[in-house]
Design a protein that fits this description.
The chain is α/β, with parallel strands linked by helices. It has helices spanning 16-31, 44-55, 69-72, 87-97, 108-122, 140-151, 169-177; strands at 3-7, 35-38, 60-65, 80-84, 100-103, 130-133, 163-166. It is globular, with a radius of gyration of 15 Å. The chain starts with a strand and ends in a 7-residue tail after the last helix. Bound molecules: adenosine monophosphate. Adenosine monophosphate binds next to helix 4 and helix 5.
Length: 184
């Protein structure tokens, strides 16, 4: 994988472990020469991750709709910054560039981006790996919800494997490299 799209909170969360995890993921990206594609903001875990990669000489592309510039505070030091018109164009551009997707801890925005990607994998619109970086178990309740949805008959059992997860950034990248979309 050359470029990975990361969805992450525009906040950093209360537990400092979230930002520490984002920094570790940035280090792993730089070490493995993986380029980051993300929303382009300076705030929250999005900014922490971008800064961590840039500090280690890695490459970061931000994709932001013009209307969000004031609200999100665009990161001005990125390797590449792509300005788009709408949120939909942002997601389309990030998808076009990415070979895989990772969600860091985040809120509604992160969930929305993650689940669009998962639901598109489910109907075969892409075969790229989708991963949860499960820092301090942040995504464990989401994994439980998915199990609940499988048990209740709303998510096919075979689609469980669309999402991989790990609390270790290197383990996560390995799982993504070995991802087999035929398991979906
Ligand atoms: P949050 O996880 O709620 O802090 O949101 C993280 C980021 O996701 C936000 O700052 C937005 O840049 C982005 N975002 C939220 N909703 C959407 C959407 N519908 N399409 C694309 N990006 C979004």
């Amino acid at each position: 994988m050359k470029q990975i799209c990361v969805f992450a909170g525009s906040s950093a969360g209360h537990n400092p472990a979230y930002a520490e995890g984002a920094k570790k993921l940035g280090k792993a990206f730089a070490e493995k020469n993986i380029e980051l594609v993300y929303g382009g903001a300076k705030s929250g875990l999005m900014g922490v991750l971008a800064d961590s990669i840039l500090e280690q000489g890695g490459k970061v592309t931000g994709v932001m709709p013009t209307e969000l510039f004031d609200r999100e505070i665009a990161h001005t030091e990125l390797s590449d910054f792509i300005e788009v018109n709408t949120m939909h164009e942002r997601k389309a551009k990030m998808s076009e560039l990415a070979d895989g997707y990772i969600a860091l801890p985040g809120g509604f925005g992160t969930f929305e981006e993650l689940f669009e990607t998962v639901s598109w994998a489910q109907i075969g619109l892409h075969q790229k790996p989708v991963a949860l970086f499960n820092i301090e178990g942040y995504y464990t309740p989401l994994k439980r919800l998915i199990e609940h949805a499988i048990e209740a008959g709303f998510v096919p059992e075979t689609n469980r494997s669309i999402i991989v997860d790990s609390a270790d950034p290197y383990g996560l990248l390995d799982m993504m490299n070995n991802y087999d979309s035929r398991n979906q």
